[in-house]
Specification:
CATH topology of the largest domain in chain A: Rossmann fold
Largest interface: A-B, 29 and 23 residues
Number of helices of chain B: 12
Strand order of the largest sheet of chain A: 5-6-7-3-8-9
Number of domains of chain A: 2
Strand content of chain B: under 5%
Shape of chain A: globular
Order of helices and strands of chain A: EEEHEEHHHEHEHEEH
Helix content of chain A: 25-40%
Number of helices of chain A: 7
Distance between the termini of chain A: 39 Å
Largest sheet of chain A: 6 strands, mixed
Number of strands of chain A: 9
Shape of chain B: globular
Radius of gyration of chain B: 23 Å
CATH class of the largest domain in chain A: Alpha Beta
Helix content of chain B: over 70%
Number of strands of chain B: 0
CATH superfamily of the largest domain in chain A: P-loop containing nucleotide triphosphate hydrolases
Oligomer: heterodimer
Strand content of chain A: 15-25%
Chain lengths: 251, 273
């Protein structure tokens, strides 16, 4: 069933100098368990798109529709920021516990879910550390744990690994794929990194520059587990790169 | 060890002081030895006003009470003013007008209003009037101006703290499902703590200055400030200087004490990426 439906979404920032057409009409849909990657050069409006879906900003036209779940409950939407946005005055455990406490979930249940999450991201021995004591990669893992502990139906991720070095980033990408394997979460992942998109996504939506419009949509059909070195991988990589080149040349 | 360079200048001054008053010269300024002598006997009654310890205790008690009232009122007011633009607009005029009214300038007014009533009188313990009793020494008027002196830095510091919460954290809290009250308790207040502590530090510094000055004015006959004035009048400059040393030391202690309490929250916040 459809978990997310975006129709005709657009956003224009009205500056005194001139109107900035950040996001030009965009429409797409997703099914349960999909991993959608929104790929585009910096400034093409992909972050704006994500924030609108999250409810942090409002579109000028169009709508975002998140249908009620099969069991009649409101879908849970979660978000991972580019800089993690962990709360620096709380340790890792408290950060991950935050969304559960906010929903007044009982202590025993909170405890077991946080512990499980810590184990899944490999931070069990750092549960009492503070964010500033962790490396960048560990902070993002904690941020991911915090968003996943709510068991969201839709997970929005805004270039979460772009501030990390390649190796750490690739490790976390693999982590992410493993974490999501056992869930039916729909993921909307924004990035400007083509390789990341090919590795993670089931479907890549390429967004062009101002205005941010969909240039093309590519389905990535790679076997699991994905190898960055396989020929098919490279094929997808190259074809997407070509699309990117043409985008850049357009300016 | 790392504080050693800081001690260089005071040591030089003390050396100069020693030389100036040494060698049996007949000077107005007492020698360091005489001042030290007074300081080393804190429990001896000085010029029948009570001992150094008693005077210090009285001044400190007044400050503690005034400061705590200021904090109890100032922090909530600051939190509300910081969080709500409307409240801030309504109250900012009053606050801005009240702020320049120096606490000391208000002392005569507060004496008129509170009529030198002490806490002993408040609690109906009139019979203690001629005994040496702490409640007897706490005048309402004095506590009021201490409150006045401390509350404004605290309010302003708290407002600053609330307003400087990072938008990123507020957005994260919202997305993670936190309601307004939950966000206020778990995000806004911890984030504002360093600025609140700063306001408290400024507030207690002000309170200490106010009490010393207020004790030098008519209206009381106890406290370290009073001791300074009285010992001056009796030409006991050794007591006067000893009292000044105490005033300075306690001022530093109060300020450093609050800084120490606020260290943890400041460190946590400032080390974020």
């Amino acid at each position: 069933m459809t978990t997310l439906k975006i129709s005709g979404l657009s956003k224009i920032y009205r500056e005194p100098a001139q109107d900035v057409h950040a996001l030009g009409p965009v429409s797409f849909e997703s099914e349960e368990g999909d991993f959608l990657c929104v790929l585009g050069p910096t400034g093409c409006g992909k972050t704006t798109l994500l924030r609108i879906v999250a409810g942090l900003e409002f579109p000028d036209t169009g709508s975002v529709s998140v249908p009620i779940r099969g069991d009649g409950a409101e879908p849970v939407i979660s978000y991972v920021f580019q800089q993690g946005a962990l709360f620096p005055w709380m340790n890792v455990y408290s950060n991950i516990e935050f969304p559960l406490k906010a929903k007044k979930i009982r202590r025993e249940i909170r405890q077991s879910r946080v512990e499980k999450m810590l184990e899944m991201v490999g931070l069990s021995s750092f549960r009492f550390s503070y964010p500033h004591q962790l490396s960048g990669g560990m902070q993002q893992r904690a941020a991911l744990a915090r968003s996943l502990v709510m068991e969201p139906d839709i997970l929005l991720m805004d270039e979460p690994f772009s501030s990390l070095d390649t190796r750490t980033s690739q490790d976390l990408q693999e982590n992410l794929r493993n974490l999501l394997k056992r869930t039916s979460t729909t993921v909307l992942f924004v990035t400007h990194n083509i390789e990341e998109a090919v590795y993670l996504a089931g479907k890549v939506i390429v967004l062009g520059h101002r205005p941010g419009r969909i240039v093309c949509t590519k389905t990535i059909d790679l076997p699991d587990p994905r190898s960055r070195l396989s020929d098919t991988f490279t094929e997808y990589l190259v074809s997407l790169r070509k699309i990117f080149e043409s985008l850049v040349l357009e300016e | 060890m790392k504080y050693l360079p800081g001690f260089a200048i005071p040591c030089l001054l003390i050396l100069w002081w020693l030389i100036a008053t040494g060698g049996g010269r007949d000077t107005l300024l007492p020698s360091p030895g005489e001042v030290l002598n007074v300081l080393l006997h804190p429990l001896v009654d000085q010029i029948s006003t009570g001992s150094l310890a008693w005077s210090t205790f009285v001044s400190l008690s007044r400050v503690m009470l005034g400061f705590m009232l200021a904090a109890l009122a100032g922090i909530p007011i600051g939190l509300i003013m910081g969080a709500s633009v409307n409240v801030r607009k309504y109250f900012s005029l009053i606050v801005e007008m009240a702020r320049p009214l120096s606490a000391i300038a208000l002392l005569p007014l507060s004496i008129i209003i509170f009529k030198a009533k002490t806490f002993a009188q408040l609690f109906g313990l009139e019979h203690l009037r001629y005994q040496k009793n702490l409640l007897n020494e706490m005048q309402l008027g004095m506590i009021f101006i201490l409150f006045w002196g401390g509350v404004f830095p605290i309010i302003l510091g708290t407002i600053q703290g609330v307003r400087s919460v990072r938008k990123l954290h507020l957005e994260a809290a919202e997305i993670l499902g936190a309601g307004k009250l939950f966000t206020f308790r778990n995000v806004i207040i911890p984030s504002a703590l360093p600025d609140i502590y700063h306001g408290l530090k400024l507030g207690i510094g002000r309170c200490w200055m106010v009490i010393i000055a207020a004790e030098m004015l008519p209206g009381t006959n106890s406290g370290i400030g009073y001791l300074i004035r009285f010992s001056y009048q009796l030409s006991r400059y050794d007591i006067m200087l000893a009292s000044i040393v105490i005033v300075a030391s306690i001022g530093a202690l109060l300020s450093k004490g609050l800084e120490f309490l606020g260290e943890k929250s400041l460190v946590l916040r400032s080390r974020e990426r």
